[in-house]
Specification:
single chain, Helix Hairpins, mainly alpha
Protein backbone atom coordinates (compact mmCIF):
# COMPACT_ATOMS: atom_id res chain seq x y z
CA UNK A 1 0.00 0.00 0.00
CA UNK A 2 1.32 3.36 -0.97
CA UNK A 3 0.74 6.82 0.38
CA UNK A 4 -1.63 9.12 -1.50
CA UNK A 5 0.29 11.45 -3.80
CA UNK A 6 -0.41 14.87 -5.24
CA UNK A 7 -0.85 13.23 -8.65
CA UNK A 8 -3.69 10.99 -7.50
CA UNK A 9 -7.07 12.02 -8.85
CA UNK A 10 -10.14 12.00 -6.65
CA UNK A 11 -11.31 8.95 -8.58
CA UNK A 12 -8.01 7.15 -7.87
CA UNK A 13 -8.32 7.91 -4.18
CA UNK A 14 -11.93 6.76 -4.01
CA UNK A 15 -11.10 3.52 -5.83
CA UNK A 16 -8.27 2.80 -3.41
CA UNK A 17 -10.47 3.74 -0.45
CA UNK A 18 -13.15 1.37 -1.68
CA UNK A 19 -10.57 -1.43 -1.82
CA UNK A 20 -9.41 -0.71 1.73
CA UNK A 21 -12.98 -0.71 3.00
CA UNK A 22 -13.74 -3.96 1.19
CA UNK A 23 -10.72 -5.61 2.84
CA UNK A 24 -11.76 -4.20 6.23
CA UNK A 25 -15.15 -5.85 5.83
CA UNK A 26 -13.46 -9.29 5.62
CA UNK A 27 -13.90 -10.83 9.07
CA UNK A 28 -11.16 -13.38 8.38
CA UNK A 29 -8.49 -10.75 7.69
CA UNK A 30 -5.48 -10.89 10.01
CA UNK A 31 -5.37 -8.13 12.63
CA UNK A 32 -2.21 -6.52 11.24
CA UNK A 33 -3.78 -6.33 7.78
CA UNK A 34 -6.95 -4.80 9.23
CA UNK A 35 -4.95 -2.18 11.13
CA UNK A 36 -2.93 -1.36 8.01
CA UNK A 37 -6.09 -1.06 5.91
CA UNK A 38 -7.70 1.16 8.56
CA UNK A 39 -4.68 3.47 8.57
CA UNK A 40 -4.61 3.59 4.78
CA UNK A 41 -8.34 4.34 4.65
CA UNK A 42 -7.79 7.30 6.97
CA UNK A 43 -5.00 8.70 4.80
CA UNK A 44 -7.02 8.20 1.62
CA UNK A 45 -10.09 9.82 3.14
CA UNK A 46 -8.06 12.85 4.23
CA UNK A 47 -6.52 13.19 0.77
CA UNK A 48 -9.94 12.87 -0.91
CA UNK A 49 -11.41 15.52 1.40
CA UNK A 50 -8.53 17.86 0.51
CA UNK A 51 -9.19 17.35 -3.22
CA UNK A 52 -12.91 18.07 -2.72
CA UNK A 53 -12.20 21.20 -0.66
CA UNK A 54 -9.80 22.47 -3.34
CA UNK A 55 -12.37 21.83 -6.06
CA UNK A 56 -15.11 23.57 -4.06
CA UNK A 57 -12.81 26.55 -3.55
CA UNK A 58 -12.07 26.77 -7.28
CA UNK A 59 -15.79 26.61 -8.09
CA UNK A 60 -16.58 29.33 -5.55
CA UNK A 61 -13.79 31.51 -6.93
CA UNK A 62 -15.00 31.01 -10.51
CA UNK A 63 -18.57 31.88 -9.51
CA UNK A 64 -17.37 35.02 -7.71
CA UNK A 65 -15.26 36.07 -10.70
CA UNK A 66 -18.11 35.41 -13.10
CA UNK A 67 -20.54 37.39 -10.94
CA UNK A 68 -18.04 40.24 -10.79
CA UNK A 69 -17.87 40.37 -14.59
CA UNK A 70 -21.57 41.16 -14.87
Amino acid sequence: MSEPSAGDTLEDLLTRLEGSLRRLADPSAPLERAVSDFEEAGRLLTAAEERLEAAASRVSQTIAETAGDR
